[in-house]
Amino acid sequence: MASSNDQRRELDDLFADLAHPNPRIQQEAYTAMVDDWPEESVPRLLSLLDQPDVSLRRAAVRGLGAFGVSTLHPLADLFAQSTDATVRASCVKAYAQIASNYPEQDFSSEAMSLLEVALDDASPVVSQSAVMALGQVGTQALPLLIRICKGGNIAHIQSAAMALAEIPDPAAEQCLRDILADPETDPLSRETVDASLSRMIGQR
User: Fold this and answer.
1) 91 touches 75 (CB < 8 A)
2) How far is the C-alpha of 71 from the C-alpha of 160, rounded, in Å?
3) Which of 41, 94, 162, 192 is a Cys-bridge partner for 64, taking CB atoms 3.0 to 4.6 Å apart?
4) Radius of gyration of the chain from Cα atoms?
5) Domain ranges across the chain
6) Domain 4-138 adopts which CATH fold?
7) What is 105-160 written as a DSSP string?
8) 3-state secondary structure at position 169
9) Residues in contact with 181: Cβ distance below 8 Å, sequence separation at least 6, in sequence order
10) Along the 204 residues of the chain, how does pLDDT read in single tens digits?
11) pTM for the full model?
């Protein structure tokens, strides 16, 4: 059995690979973290979410997303504690990765509450990331996506409408139809909603 020092060196090697510019090497690194060092890796990945190195920060987000719903709670804690919009946005983007990687795993009520809070974040990057994450969550996020579509943020409406097009639920279709029928709907939003509704119908 390897000593703890040997184990720590191996984990350090994986984090060195996470900083490699090759996405395949990054993926191999965080996959090994999931398999061999989950308890040790997650806190270190979380600590990278304020990295000025965008490539490394994105790799950490993807790495956290590879762990599945087990990282929802620590990400929520970091989101709540951080005054850094980059960190908060990275937490939300990690949620999107989790939803994309593990579509069969439901988000906890706490996780859904975080995304709802993030929608009203003062940082537009955080709030827009929340809409994108809800789109990845899919059916479970349907009530929030409908609420967004009936709001006043054009960028959010467009993203939410595209997400609704991928949800095979009558409520999603009705929401899109309601927006199109509303004479107050912004022209850009109307265009996106119309395209989303056509795509939804075409997928039947």
Assistant:
1) yes
2) 25
3) 94
4) 19
5) 4-138, 150-204
6) Leucine-rich Repeat Variant (1.25.10)
7) SPPPHHHHHHHHHHHT-SSHHHHHHHHHHHHHHGGGGHHHHHHHHTSS-HHHHHHH
8) coil
9) none
10) 444 555 555 999 999 999 999 999 999 999 999 999 999 999 999 999 999 999 999 999 999 999 999 999 999 999 999 999 999 999 999 999 999 999 999 999 999 999 999 999 999 999 999 999 999 999 999 999 999 998 989 999 999 999 999 999 999 999 999 999 999 999 999 999 999 999 999 887
11) 0.90
Whether residue 101 contacts residue 66, with contact meaning beta carbons closer than 8 Å, is answered with yes
Three-state DSSP string of 37-71: CHHHHHHHHHCCCCCCCHHHHHHHHHHHHCCHHHH
Contact 10, 40 (CB under 8 A): no
Q: How far apart are CA 166 and CA 169, in angstroms?
A: 9
Identify whether the C-beta of residue 84 lies closer than 8 Å to the C-beta of residue 48.
Answer: no
